[in-house]
Protein: C1GALT1-specific chaperone 1
Amino acid sequence: MLSESSSFLKGVMLGSIFYALIAMLGHIKIGHGNRMHHHEHHHLQAPNKEEILKISEDERMELSRSFRVYCIILVKPKDVSLWAAVKETWTKHCDKAEFFSSEDVKVFESVNMETNDMWLMMRKAYKYAFDKYSDQYNWFFLARPTTFAIIENLKYFLLKKDPSQPFYIGHTIKSGDLEYVSVEGGIVLSIDSMKRLNSLLNIPEKCPEQGGMIWKLSEDKQLAVCLKYAGVFAENAEDAEGKDVFNTKSVGLFIKEAMSNHPNQVVEGCCSDMAVTFNGLTPNQMHVMMYGVYRLRAFGHTFSDALIFLPPNGSDND
Structure:
């Protein structure tokens, strides 16, 4: 009996040591020294109209011409119908959009990443974009093919933010000690964050290719881990009312939830007027969104926008 009790206690002690080791390794993997405890999470907001009106008309015109966003869309061959819809709709409003595929697809032009692993695709796409376009674009927007983005709203949101600072923006989620931007709502990196990320891609101790030592992290969590080592932290994008502007759900789902939760305030309880993204759309829903956002007009009604973003040269956008 004494022998059995002794064996049991030894088992408990060994199990405790093993659990502590796993916890420690997990903390080393995801944490970033003590610096993460001193970082205050930011809730970033778009500038208001009064701020924009303080800018001279000449400066506003220059901003509308010079503000450039490069769009990265990660796709796989099974996404071909979504791929077509994204190509025909909102990506025309990017200053440049490129598709990064897991393999060559004859139907559409893309950059072949030669891997099915989403984290490897993401990091390779970021490296490609930085190496080729770091001197041409200050903002880099990454999305999945189920995402619909309103690029003009993105530009407006970023208008007063300095791309030479380390911005990492979108819809933030907290997972343990790690706060990350969900890829489902789209991810925005400034050129400074791109530089910092690029400097770590060849340092496996800080930005490994294969994910966690014990468990595999999703690509958006992996990105957050790498960026933490570079001193870049996730920041949630909101409008003046505190509503998210990067959304991980579709408009239809938001309206359904609002009708259930706020039946007397469906519109107010749904979405931000300055929304940048919605996710989980089908190809048909992409085209419906395009119609609602860019083509439908109320005759005789004019919007007094303080700033207009001109389309890229040679663009056939709406």
